[in-house]
Amino acid sequence: MTGILVKQDIEAAMDNSMLLVYAIKENLRACSYDLRIGTIFKDGQVINGNHRDANLQIIIKPGEIISMLTLEEVILPDNVMASVFAINAQSSRGLLVLNPGHIDPGFRGPISVKVLNLRKVDLALSRQAPIFTIIFEELPKSSVSPYSTHVTRDQREREHNENDVELAPRNIAELISLGNSIYPTRQEVREIVLQHWTTWLTLILTFIAALTGIISLFLAIGLSSPRGDIPKPSATPTPIITPKPPNTQKSPNIFLPQPSATPTP
Q1: DSSP strand pairing (58-60 vs 95-97)
Q2: How far is it, in rounded angstroms, from Cα 103 to Cα 9?
Q3: Which of 46, 94, 105, 142 is the right S-S partner for 118, CB 3.0 to 4.6 Å?
Q4: pTM
């Protein structure tokens, strides 16, 4: 049988140190488990179980973004995948989880979480508070290319904190203003709008110029064409010339002697 694992399947796996480690059975649900906050990265500090402020609440400012790792670590065999979702209770408080998704077979280690405070007031978070719901699904066959990059928790915390300090935005304003962000800045929005209307204006002016040129060409052709093909009627009627009949009388031959008018005696 394959499909989503139910509570008793997850519990049996936990008893054998599979699927989840550092887990508690109180967080088991009908077919899921609620992962807890284990490590918080804030202001360049790694706040975990060994930190002096491990039991203090962490204050998240309005619009602030922080990164975390789950307390539980996931151990997936090659034929099981998992999916993580935001906890409804945290979402109702205005805490937005930015990176829910699936986990490939073969993955081992804590799950990284990035959250944003959408409230207008501060929001308090504590270690070991539930943050993610995880669902396990058994596949019909094992993956031929399972997840294979594995590091210790300490190493992952160091690398994650370095990346968080150097690259990660600390609030929504930085997220929007980053040059490589998917969200345009205010200046970029202005440029996009200006470019949009400039492009349309250029197209319209080009079309008008082309249309004017075509009309001018047709007018030039019409003015230069000959106009004598169809004669105009004359105001004065043309007189009708009747040909004279041919003269049938023979002309006298001037070279022959002509008879005298007076008879010879």
Answers
A1: unpaired
A2: 18
A3: 94
A4: 0.65
